[in-house]
Design brief:
By secondary structure, the protein is mainly alpha-helical. The protein has one domain. The protein is 54% helix and 4% strand. It is built from 15 helices and four strands.
Length: 346
């Protein structure tokens, strides 16, 4: 019955009159200019006189840019996927190739597999068998990482290390798409690092350990409790109602609304939520926080959940990895509309 309620809501909202999709979404273009402007102004004008402030502002720009990349991979601010990619192609966040982020994040949008340690690329859960093989000190680190302060302090390091290791394996295994994504990323790094080193005069190691790391820490605040295990897919995604960080996150704190309407631009999410607030909360089973301060008070030094997934992947299941059937082709820039996927075959 609850699944039918979810489907009914999707059909209802989809059938309501919607604004005609504009060729260019100027609010998003404006924020892209603000983001790059903040980054450049901080490095060129502020760093020589107030380096700590400059690096902090650049960290905000890095987090902001990550949110803009997220917007771009969902088909904004233009109908051209190529143009959207170019608009966010300067990798001021240093670490994650845009095409890899796009591929993995769209796979993550198969809601029926959210939190799966293998099938959800953004899951923080581990399979029981994998957990038992980890060294004790790694288990301790992953346990700390499941508190909010731990996620902010050590989360970026763990995330980058795990990502680089996995990407290296894919490239070594002959994955051409992954290799191409990293090649394009490397081409973008050349002008970006040249600007940081020669124009701003910031040592590259300092930029990486401050602006980039702090930027990832800001993003970690948003991602900390975005998803949890629930028997109902709709109950796996959080709603954080209000936050001063909402603009940096491009309203992705309303994460459940985004998952149900993934092609809606960031500036329409609050209105969608306000119009049917009670229904959204009923659909996701009340997995709602008023703000991030409420999350901080509850989970600053206490883990919100165990690292081992409580239900999925408790037993080894080789060859049963989930694969989405396909992604829908939209006019908003390529494969941006996730299609419900088939579960693993028995």
């Amino acid at each position: 019955m609850k699944n039918m309620e979810s489907e009914r809501h999707t059909e209802t909202t989809a059938s309501q009159p919607t604004r005609k999709r504009l060729g260019i979404e100027w609010p998003t273009i404006g924020l892209m200019i603000v983001c790059y402007g903040l980054w450049f102004t901080s490095g060129y004008y502020i760093y020589p006189f107030m380096p700590i402030l400059a690096l902090a502002l650049m960290a905000v720009a890095v987090a902001f840019h990550s949110s803009l990349q997220h917007e771009a991979l969902h088909g904004h601010p233009t109908r051209s996927g190529t143009i959207n990619e170019v608009l966010v192609s300067l990798p001021i966040g240093l670490v994650f190739p845009y095409r890899r982020y796009k591929h993995l994040h769209l796979k993550h949008h198969a809601d029926e597999r959210l939190t799966d340690p293998y099938d959800d690329p953004e899951s923080y859960y581990r399979a029981l068998g994998d957990w038992e093989k980890l060294p004790a000190f790694v288990r301790v680190l992953l346990g700390w990482n499941n508190s909010l302060v731990g996620r902010i302090v050590i989360g970026p390091a763990l995330m980058v290390a795990g990502f680089v290791v996995n990407e290296t394996k894919l490239i070594a295994g002959g994955d051409d798409k992954t290799r191409t994504a990293w090649l394009l990323h490397g081409l973008g790094l050349v002008p970006m690092l040249a600007i940081v080193w020669f124009v701003f005069g910031i040592p590259l190691w300092l930029y990486a350990l401050t602006a980039v790391y702090w930027g990832l820490s800001i993003i970690s605040i948003r991602s900390y409790c975005e998803h949890q295990w629930s028997e109902r897919p709709d109950g796996r995604t959080v709603i954080v109602e209000k936050s001063p960080l909402a603009l940096i996150f491009l309203n992705n704190n309303l994460h459940f609304v985004h998952h149900k309407r993934p092609t809606v631009p960031w500036y329409r999410l609050p209105q969608l939520y306000r119009e049917q607030r009670e229904e959204w909360q009923r659909m996701n089973g009340g997995y709602v926080f008023r703000n991030y301060f409420e999350i901080l008070r509850a989970y600053a030094f206490r883990k919100k959940q165990d690292v081992v997934h409580p239900v999925l992947r408790r037993e080894p299941a080789p060859g049963r990895a989930f694969r989405p059937r396909r992604h829908g082709i939209s006019l908003q820039g390529g494969s941006t509309l996730p299609i419900p996927a088939e579960p693993p075959k028995e």
